[in-house]
Fold:
Amino acid sequence: MKKIISMILVLMLILGATSTSVFAKNEKQNNGKGNVLTKFFEDSDEISWAQKSINKLQLKGLLKGDKGKYQPNRSVTQLEAIIMCLRIMDCEADALTMENLPKKYKGEAVQKWAVGYISKAAELGILDEEDLKNFKPSAPVKRHEIAKYVIRALQKEDEAQDKMDEKLTFADAAAVPQGSVGYVYLVSQLGIMVGDGKNFKPTGTLSRAEMAVLFCNLDDRVDNDNDEYEFTGIVDSVRAGEIVLKIGALTRTFDVSDYVVVYKGTNSIAYSRIAKGDNVLIKTDDDVVEYIEILTDHQADDKIITNYSGELRAIGSGDPATLTVKIKELTAIFQVADGAEFYFKGVKGTINDLKVGDEVRIAVDNSNRALKVVVNRQLAVITQDQGEITELDLRGTYHLSVDGTRYVLSKDADVKVDNVASGFGDLKVGMDVIVKLRQSVIEYVYAEK
Structure:
């Protein structure tokens, strides 16, 4: 079923895709194998083992350097690791709209441009309360820390907690902090971070070249909006300047750049070595193929997160809630993960804003949980107030007062205390609170102890 749904999603992307250029002016170089490589960074020659990952991520707009240089041997900072997690999970745009640090942030000073990244990471649970107390934006991130960030970004915190007593197979397993065992176990089991084959080096740092490989591994397993101009299919024919792919039930012809980059495994190969029947991933820019990767069967169907699109047919109110979606001729039911996000034309809402009949795009993990729902309509107008809870009346018609202003409180309101899903009984007079209202009725309550 997953393969069929994935095929349908690809067809929908094909029929609706347009393209936006992400290239800067790049230097071209011949690789001596009959094809021309795009050299994205002038200092990348020394890290040929990471070249594929760097090229791929930069082409997708996920990896950035400075003045044509990538600085591959520089250590990755805690802030850079957080930013990359948010980019891969398609949350950067939302982060850029956030202007205030979490109230519980006690870490080192943060530059204004980076505030939203930390706030979004805290909202998603990538950074917990302890992290917010000790965060050092410019400090080199440790490998066990980045394992934690990645697993939390994938919303697998509960699974990590369940694996805290697992026996790690790395020779240096004893060096993994006890509170990181579950994260290291999962990130290695998923093939995202595997160490050097013997050691994990949990307290070691990560170079920017290593970061590119790590996050390319993650991106390969996550299907998101960054993949809009990326297609996977079987080669039907190939010749100079043109490749024809069978994608599901369709056959599509693509123009190929004279400077196309082609990889098989980690090796750059000549374009002429692509053969009919190869399973390939291609990346287009301005409707022209700039990147081709010959895939193994394992790579072609090994997603941690997959996107499905269709019509919302039912909203189940159980615990967890469920969403029933009609996808072409198939109907699928997805559980809603804790912390799932809901967006309406870019405006954040909740599951309460969904309506049967909505056209939705759902990011689902490999446990069949909906992590993110994007709805193709505007959210009804919402107003907001914030301050201190000065009254809470849960008799008859519920009321909540913010700095003395009294509002009706919906009995179905979404309540979070310290960013944790909560009930009305967890609200207390004196708490700092942000409330969101529709037609003067509170539907969202975000409180802090």
